[in-house]
Amino acid sequence: MAMIATLAQIFFILAFLLLLGGALIAASDAGVRRAFRIALHRRVARLRAPRYAIVGDSLAAQCDWRPLRRRPFDVLRLCLGGATLKDIGAQIVEARMMCARCFIIDGGLNDLLFDAAPLAQIDHDFRALLRRLPEDARGVLMLAPHVADAAQAPRIDEINALMRALAEARGLAVVDLAPQLSQDGARRPEMTDDGLHFSPLAAKLWVRAARERLLRDGLA
């Protein structure tokens, strides 16, 4: 009976995919595609939890995380352009509902650069983000990279020091790609397309660094 129930669930997932697949193909809006992808993950998570949850802002969202994937639906991508630390906390809640236990996290630049959040606010919001993780969560915090404007480097370094200490106290690994992506506090020209976001090369290095750390910690 259990096998029949499992097969029925698989059939339901496939039917759901077929019914909505045409709508996805027809839709050019990225938000619609993201919503469709997450809806599929919710269905699949009833049978098998995602291996990794990627939560964060546009930096994580623009990366190709397929190198982490062994099977379809291994990687749950909830990251979204413009996300603040509060938004990323909500992404973690969504991932928890799908029983995710291993997280790759980035964030903080939108709070700092666009919301002009003071350090005390970032401290508060990042602590709240960490509290939303499952008790047995493992994973990696990717520290905020420098941007093209070197004048922002001291503030970025300040929030990185804060988030590193809190993440390590929570048992998360921390990856800092500043030596590879920047020089003298400024993002290298070949590592950005617009001074803030990643070039294809930087995005590839970002994923590789996350994967290597997961391997080192026995999580890949």
**Main sheet summary:** 5 strands, parallel
Count the E strands.
Answer: 7
Q: What portion of residues is helical?
A: 40-55%
Q: What structural category arises from helix and sheet content?
A: alpha/beta
Number of DSSP helices? 9
Distance between the termini: 33 Å
Weakly predicted, low-confidence segments: none
Radius of gyration, rounded?
18 Å
- N-to-C SSE series? HHEHEHEHHEHEHEEH
Oligomeric state of this protein: single chain
User: DSSP strand (E) fraction?
Assistant: 5-15%
Q: Order of strands side by side in the largest beta sheet?
A: 2-1-3-4-5
SSE blueprint:
Blueprint: H1 2-26, H2 30-45, E1 52-55, H3 58-61, E2 75-77, H4 85-97, E3 102-106, H5 109-114, H6 119-131, E4 138-142, H7 153-169, E5 173-175, H8 178-181, E6 182-183, E7 186-187, H9 200-216
Describe this structure in words.
The chain is of the alpha/beta class. The protein contains nine helices and seven strands. The chain has helices spanning 2-26, 30-45, 58-61, 85-97, 109-114, 119-131, 153-169, 178-181, 200-216; strands spanning 52-55, 75-77, 102-106, 138-142, 173-175, 182-183, 186-187. Helix 4 packs parallel to helix 6. The longest helix has 25 residues, at 2-26. The protein is globular and about 65 Å long. The model has no long low-confidence stretch (mean pLDDT 90).
